[in-house]
């Protein structure tokens, strides 16, 4: 069984009403349907873990409501705040938190024993779970006799054996090396398709988010900036912040023409046409152009605004960095298949971007250094 999770107008301020309080979550709305895999994605400090911990009941919000199925977990206005142990949620953390003195079997059996499930039933449920996480051969081992990946599989089995309707995940794969992370991500996706539970999963890793989410929430400074299936969010980022967080390059420009849905932008890197059709932008407005690294082509051009600063072999693609004329900090990262690249370090280039791949937004680019959330001091509340 799985249940929907609804969060409405959630606010969390660390430090209460004190002057130096930090607003970590600022009016978050989240709806994850029954059996959906919801992923909260965002840079460090944007409030992901704080949201997760309020669902678990480990942090008390300053405002808002949290409902799971028909049960209200938290409602500030009605003074409802269900204790963590009454919420019946499963949790998987970054640290595996297995009991070191118990065997794998006993670790996984623990939640069932606490509920006084019958011995034969425990044996079959634990066996089933260990098979699902492909660890049946380790039943008699102790945690220290397992690799990190195996320990995390056991932690997962221990959480899922009790059939929780909702499982919270806080960066559960981030302690594992890259290859194992991909493997476990795929196994988790498979487990989710076999066992019915609603997932709320926190990560800052885009690949993990894309690979797991049925619904993605991109967070920024304690707010949800965009929600949707990963494919939609990736192909149509609602704001330059989202595009940029998902890896797009962005650079400044001004709109100099519009023909129907086609915008012409005079940008730092030359004229770019776009069919992204941003709302409310017209000729004369400042704008920011964004494009993913694999959607930017380069053409040698002595009058081009960009200069190739570096070109390196990056496995499947060449990694190229282009900067403006006298090279400054404003750099574009471009990834192209080697056979598509005909430029060298020092070449002047112009960018070739298909109008469908050139995203245009109002305002100025957010640069990487601006993206990490800096705590906003709370306006002193009376
Ligand atoms: N106990 C605390 N007291 C004061 N401020 C806190 C506390 N915990 C978190 N914060 C602040 O609240 C904000 C959100 O933190 P949170 O841990 O939710 O972010 P996050 O997106 O999960 O980041 P990360 O990916 O680095 O874990 C940050 O600015 C953080 O510094």
From TrEMBL:
Gene3D superfamilies attached to this UniProt entry? P-loop containing nucleotide triphosphate hydrolases
Task: Establish whether keyword ATP-binding is in the entry.
Answer: yes
User: What are the UniProt keywords, alphabetically?
Assistant: ATP-binding, Cell membrane, Membrane, Nucleotide-binding, Transport
* SMART domains assigned: AAA
Extract one GO molecular function annotation from the record: ATP binding
Source domain of life is: Bacteria
Entry-linked CDD domains: ABC_Carb_Solutes_like
The answer on whether this UniProt entry bears the keyword Signal reads no
The cross-references to InterPro entries, in alphabetical order and at most eight, read: AAA+_ATPase, ABC_transporter-like_ATP-bd, ABC_transporter-like_CS, ABC_transpr_FbpC, ABC_transpr_MalK/UgpC-like, Mo/tungstate-bd_C_term_dom, P-loop_NTPase
Name all ABC transporter domain ranges.
5-246
What protein name applies here? ABC transporter ATP-binding protein
Q: What organism does this protein naturally occur in? A: Dactylosporangium fulvum
């Amino acid at each position: 069984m799985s249940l929907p999770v609804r969060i409405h107008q959630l606010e969390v301020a660390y430090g209460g009403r004190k002057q130096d309080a930090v607003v970590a979550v600022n009016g978050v709305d989240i709806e994850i349907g029954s059996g959906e895999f919801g992923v909260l994605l965002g840079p460090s400090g944007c409030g992901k873990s704080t949201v997760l911990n309020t669902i678990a009941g480990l942090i008390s919000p300053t405002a808002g409501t949290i409902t799971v199925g028909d049960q209200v977990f938290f409602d500030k206005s009605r003074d409802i705040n269900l204790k963590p142990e009454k919420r019946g949620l499963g949790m998987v953390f970054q640290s595996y938190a297995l009991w070191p003195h118990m065997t794998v079997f006993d670790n996984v059996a623990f939640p069932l024993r606490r509920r006084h499930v019958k011995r034969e039933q425990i044996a079959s449920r634990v066996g089933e779970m260990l098979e699902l996480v492909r660890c049946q051969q380790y039943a008699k081992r102790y945690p220290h006799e397992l690799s990190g990946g195996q320990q995390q599989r056991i932690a997962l089995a221990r959480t899922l054996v009790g059939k929780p309707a909702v499982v919270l995940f806080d960066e559960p794969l981030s302690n594992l090396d890259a290859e194992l992370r991909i493997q476990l991500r795929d196994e988790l996706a498979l487990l989710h398709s076999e066992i019915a539970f609603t997932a709320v999963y926190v990560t800052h890793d885009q690949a993990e988010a894309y690979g797991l989410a049925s619904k993605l929430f991109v967070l920024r400074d304690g707010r949800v900036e965009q929600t949707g299936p990963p494919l939609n969010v990736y192909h149509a980022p609602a704001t330059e912040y989202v595009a940029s967080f998902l890896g797009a390059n962005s650079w400044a420009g001004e709109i100099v023409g519009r023909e129907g849905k086609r915008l012409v932008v005079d940008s730092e890197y030359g004229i770019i046409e776009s069919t992204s059709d941003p709302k409310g932008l017209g000729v004369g407005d400042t704008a920011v152009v964004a494009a993913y690294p694999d959607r930017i082509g380069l053409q040698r051009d002595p009058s081009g605004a960009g200069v190739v600063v570096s070109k390196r072999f990056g496995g499947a693609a060449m990694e190229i960095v282009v900067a403006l004329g006298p090279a400054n900090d404003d750099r574009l990262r471009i990834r192209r298949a080697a056979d598509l690249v005909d430029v060298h370090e020092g070449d002047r280039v112009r960018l070739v971007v298909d109008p469908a791949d050139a995203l245009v937004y109002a305002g100025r680019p957010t640069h990487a250094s601006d993206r990490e959330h800096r705590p906003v001091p709370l306006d002193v509340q009376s």
